[in-house]
Design brief:
- This protein is of the alpha+beta class.
- About 15% of the residues lie in helices and about 40% in strands.
- The longest helix is centred in the N-terminal third of the chain and has 8 residues.
- The chain starts with 6 loop residues before the first strand and ends with a strand.
Amino acid sequence: MGRIMKVLHLTLKKKWFEMIAGGEKREEYREIKPYWTRRLADFSADEYDAVKFRNGYRPDSPTVTVELEGIFSGFGRKEWGAPSERVYILRLGRILQAP
């Protein structure tokens, strides 16, 4: 019996969703705020195996599941939507399930 994969669920705007689904965007960013600290930084490095991104809030919104290689803080790439301050960076690996 294998280990159950733990998946982090996040919602994205269409532009970022399409870039991730197409393999172009390899990082996702979240502000360093108490909400994201509870969800991301307070977990061990092995807490999540993948991220399931959803484009919108409807039940039939498209999704893509991507391997999560790591979560750390730093400065992201502006062209991938990062603000100028430090953020949580979710480093993305291979696409596990495409839309």
